[in-house]
């Protein structure tokens, strides 16, 4: 049932047979208006790639002229909004037969009910389940196909075995990104070898591949390179389809790629008998060049690009100039001759003593590129950011690449300049801000210079260094530099997950105390006019907020143009259709920066969202990005489109990994850092209530009882800092629900998932069985990561097997009870150690860390200690640092906590939330 707003269009067809077996097809709409034949062609061949969408279809002033095979290939109709019916009762009956014949034509079973002789092909319509009218149409279609080929009618009987297995050749679109062909190779000179007929695969750039000599007899899947193994079944099927036409070579079964020797007499038969069949149905056969009467070739075009100056960033706007050179079969051709070929629409060209076939459309395309290039249309910036036609882009080098038809090169000085921009080497030095309270490592200084360079050239930036390489301190250096400039009038905005908000505040206090900050978060945050007045009154350098708050207050935040906007863990905006992502991408900043520790090149929808934030419109809308990259890469695994995408994002992306040899020279073997997390509102309320209750009890106790209560209180509070469900002794609940109640848990889970995604491994220590189970549940339900949990109750045999399996790489995350896993184990496969909760004896914590940081460890080890802000975890962490400076002996057991003075105990039992 249709409604008044339907887009569907009904056309009434007239089908008039002609004497030569063709049909005159006319159409009119339900109002009686006659349809233009060219418009009808576009509907009939809407999705028919084999017919070039009807491009060569014959028409007259009134009708479309279709052979029977063309008519059958037009049905069932593929246009989403156009349907057909007969203009008369007779036309409707004819159209019914066409639909029936079309369905049967595409079904290989049809040919089981066919017989062939010198007069043609005949069907047993009754057994085939089709009407006589449909059978007649199919016979006409077969004759039409034969008339356009070099196949004789008496060869139909040779075709039937093939048709019964594969159907009519060429009627289906290949689903594999390569072409299967036969190649005939002549014997080597001065040898007694035979001819070789073999299967080759033609890749997306026209390169020919055949199996290595040692794999000639191997099964097809084993012989294929890794990038094509997933298509092994389809490739084998296509080869069988082609080989079924061979009559001069006897092949019983074929599980490997075809590779057979042929004598001269057999080659002559192959060329005279099999080759016409194969070529008539569009199968590729590659012959020695001297066997061709006309050599297929293309003009070779080389261009060398350059500019006048390269000394400053203004060089980005320099117009490119080009020097063009042409050659055909090794003979140079001047530009005037080339232009004449294009003007005369030449297709067959003689060079020396040979004739060559040239594609005139390709020549026109090249001349169009030349005209646009020579008119000064493209600059260095366009070349850097790939805003030029793909033919003008120097792709990544491919050592197997054949001589390209259009070879794009650059003058040495321009190439060096482009490398500076794309490789981030030789950038202008800004000078590390004097107010930065740390020293930058060389690679961090490069990152800082790059961020400043990108700002000054109005380009967004994605800083995607590995976790542990110091993205935070690079950004803080950038903020110090920018906010020291007199022209800076508004604050910078940093948007981050709630779980790392406290971490950012601590890092600013540590590295850049001169920067003033305001945290826009919580139920009592300023809004609207109060927020504007706060910015005017306090003039903060940095405004912190969370993704959730930025989404809620997006309209208000968008009223301010910030000096810069930074997204930490920018993958949080990956779902571009969510309100959060759309709102954040609308915020206004003079410079947009994204920080992420995970590679984004292979998560394409996420990549689009991040780039839409840092450099609005760079990839166009999402539909265009989908057509240009997501479909060819995710569906077709297109290597050339992967290279194009990498080339386009490279100038905006700075990513260094811990495996980079240059960086390892500048890194310590072990980096320990605190990961600060806030309490949720629920945790904070429970924390204050429990502190009040404990303080009251302590007033009534003395001596031994007081010490016991302190230790019990500490354990209960640590469980609360981990998760309120542990404190309240609640039963298990879904991970989606549990993770919202603890920012520490959320941070541990997201960090572990990020580590796994980066191809690294981690061990997670906790003192509490409940916390270990909770981490394991969340990793499994939210990220599909199965992480074993080693506890003290686990038998030694099982424990040893788990350790061995982790070392062998069978799973990436290993959760361990601090008591059970803190000593005696070798876990050097991990290069991250996560301490979910702190042990008050540093020696115990260090022993646990040393499960990974020990002899045999060849990687940089990153130790993360999770600390909840304002709680006993942060206060005791500070005490440990102070006492360690006095004497390690004082803190070699937990008992020192029971000896705290009244002042120290009072501070410990305060809550700075």
How is this structure best described in words?
By secondary structure, this protein is α/β, with parallel strands linked by helices. The chain folds into five domains: 158 residues, no CATH class; 113 residues, no CATH class; 127 residues, no CATH class; 222 residues, Rossmann fold (3-Layer(aba) Sandwich), CATH 3.40.50.10810; 236 residues, Rossmann fold, CATH 3.40.50. The protein is built from 35 helices and 34 strands. Strands 22-23-21-25-27-20-28 form a seven-stranded parallel β-sheet, with helices on both faces. Strands 29-34-33-30-32-31 form a six-stranded parallel β-sheet, sandwiched between helices. A hairpin with a 2-residue loop joins strand 6 and strand 7. The longest helix has 20 residues. It starts with 8 loop residues before the first strand and ends in a 5-residue tail after the last helix.
Structural domain tally? 5
Unreliable stretches covering 5 or more consecutive residues: 1-5, 291-296, 310-314, 395-404, 885-893
Instruction: Name the CATH superfamily classification of the largest domain.
Output: P-loop containing nucleotide triphosphate hydrolases
Question: How many strands appear in the DSSP assignment?
Answer: 34
Judging from the principal axes of the Cα atoms, what is the shape? elongated
Protein name: DEAD/DEAH box helicase
Pfam families: DUF3670, Helicase_C, SNF2-rel_dom
GO molecular function, one term: hydrolase activity
Organism: Sporosarcina siberiensis
């Amino acid at each position: 049932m249709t409604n008044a707003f339907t887009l569907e269009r009904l056309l009434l067809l007239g089908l008039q047979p002609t004497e030569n077996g063709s049909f005159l097809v006319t159409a009119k709409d339900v109002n009686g208006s006659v349809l233009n034949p060219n418009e009808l062609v576009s509907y009939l061949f809407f999705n028919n790639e084999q017919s070039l969408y009807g491009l060569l279809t014959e028409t007259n002033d009134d009708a479309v002229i279709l052979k029977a095979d063309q008519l059958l290939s037009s049905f069932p109709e593929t246009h989403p909004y156009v349907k057909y019916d007969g203009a008369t009762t007779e036309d409707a009956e004819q159209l019914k037969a066409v639909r029936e014949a079309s369905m049967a034509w595409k079904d290989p079973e049809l040919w089981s009910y066919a017989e062939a002789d010198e007069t043609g092909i005949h069907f047993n319509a009754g057994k085939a389940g089709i009407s006589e009218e449909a059978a007649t149409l199919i016979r006409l279609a077969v004759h039409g196909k034969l008339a356009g080929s070099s196949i004789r009618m008496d060869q139909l009987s040779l075709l039937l075995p093939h048709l019964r297995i594969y159907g009519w050749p060429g009627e289906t679109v290949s689903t594999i990104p390569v072409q299967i062909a036969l190649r005939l190779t002549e014997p080597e000179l001065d040898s007694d070898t035979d001819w070789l007929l073999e299967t080759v695969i033609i890749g997306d750039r026209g390169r020919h591949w055949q199996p290595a000599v040692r794999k000639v007899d191997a099964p097809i899947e084993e012989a294929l390179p890794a990038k094509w193994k997933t298509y092994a079944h389809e490739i084998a099927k296509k080869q069988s389809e082609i080989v079924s036409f061979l009559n001069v070579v006897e092949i019983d079964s074929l599980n490997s790629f075809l590779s057979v020797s042929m004598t001269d007499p057999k080659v002559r038969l192959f060329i005279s008998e099999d080759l016409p069949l194969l070529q008539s149905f569009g199968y590729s056969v590659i012959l020695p060049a001297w066997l061709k009467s006309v050599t297929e070739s293309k003009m070779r075009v080389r261009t060398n690009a350059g500019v006048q100056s390269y000394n400053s960033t203004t060089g980005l706007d320099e117009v490119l100039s080009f020097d063009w050179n042409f050659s055909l079969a090794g003979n140079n051709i001047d530009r005037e001759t080339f232009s004449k070929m294009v003007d005369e629409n030449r297709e067959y060209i003689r060079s020396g003593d040979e004739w060559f076939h040239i594609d005139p459309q390709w020549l026109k395309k090249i001349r169009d590129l030349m005209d646009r290039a020579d008119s000064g249309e493209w600059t260095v910036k366009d070349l850097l950011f790939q805003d030029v036609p793909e033919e003008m882009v120097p792709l990544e080098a491919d050592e197997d690449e054949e001589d390209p038809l259009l070879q794009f090169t650059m003058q040495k000085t321009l190439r060096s300049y482009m490398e500076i921009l794309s490789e981030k080497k030789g950038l202008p030095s800004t000078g590390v801000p004097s107010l930065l309270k740390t020293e930058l490592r060389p690679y961090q200084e490069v990152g800082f210079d790059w961020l400043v360079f990108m700002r000054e050239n109005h380009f967004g930036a994605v800083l995607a260094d590995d976790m542990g390489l110091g993205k935070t301190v690079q950004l803080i250096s950038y903020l110090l530099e920018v906010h020291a400039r007199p022209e800076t009038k508004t604050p910078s905005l940093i948007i981050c997950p709630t779980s790392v908000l406290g971490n950012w505040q601590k890092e600013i206090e540590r590295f850049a105390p001169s920067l003033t900050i305001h945290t826009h978060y919580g139920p009592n945050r300023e809004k609207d006019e109060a927020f504007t007045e706060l910015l005017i009154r306090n003039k903060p350098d940095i405004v912190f907020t969370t993704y959730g708050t930025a989404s809620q207050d997006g309209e208000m935040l968008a009223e301010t143009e910030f000096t810069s906007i930074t997204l930490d863990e920018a993958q949080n905006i990956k779902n571009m259709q969510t309100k959060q992502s759309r709102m954040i991408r609308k915020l206004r900043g003079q410079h947009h920066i994204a920080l992420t520790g995970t590679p984004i090149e292979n998560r394409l929808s996420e990549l689009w969202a991040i780039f839409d934030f840092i450099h609005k419109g760079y990839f166009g809308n999402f539909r265009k990005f989908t057509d240009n990259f997501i479909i060819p890469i995710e569906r077709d695994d297109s290597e050339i489109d992967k290279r194009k995408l990498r080339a386009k994002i490279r100038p905006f992306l700075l990513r260094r990994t811990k495996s980079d040899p240059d960086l390892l020279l500048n890194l310590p073997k072990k980096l320990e850092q605190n990961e600060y997390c806030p309490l949720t509102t629920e945790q904070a309320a429970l924390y204050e209530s429990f502190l009040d209750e404990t303080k009251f009890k302590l007033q009534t106790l003395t001596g031994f009882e007081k010490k016991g209560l302190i230790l019990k209180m500490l354990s209960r509070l640590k469980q609360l800092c981990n998760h309120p469900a542990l404190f309240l002794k609640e039963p298990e609940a879904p991970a989606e629900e549990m993770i919202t109640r603890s920012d520490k848990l959320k941070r541990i889970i997201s960090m572990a998932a990020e580590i796994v995604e980066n191809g690294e491994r981690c061990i997670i220590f906790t003192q509490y069985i409940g916390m270990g189970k909770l981490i394991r549940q969340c990793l499994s339900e939210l990220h599909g990561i199965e992480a074993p949990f080693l506890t003290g109750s686990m038998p030694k045999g099982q424990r040893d097997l788990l350790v061995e399996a982790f070392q062998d790489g069978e799973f990436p995350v290993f959760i361990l009870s601090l008591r059970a896993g803190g000593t005696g184990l070798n876990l050097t496969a991990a290069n991250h150690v996560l301490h979910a909760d702190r042990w008050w004896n540093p020696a115990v914590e260090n022993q646990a860390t040393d499960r990974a940081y020990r002899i045999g460890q060849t990687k940089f080890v990153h130790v993360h200690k999770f600390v909840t802000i304002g709680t006993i975890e942060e206060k005791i962490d500070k005490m440990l640092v102070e006492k360690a400076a006095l004497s390690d002996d004082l803190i070699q057991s937990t008992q020192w906590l029971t000896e705290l003075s009244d002042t120290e105990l009072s501070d410990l039992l305060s809550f700075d939330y």
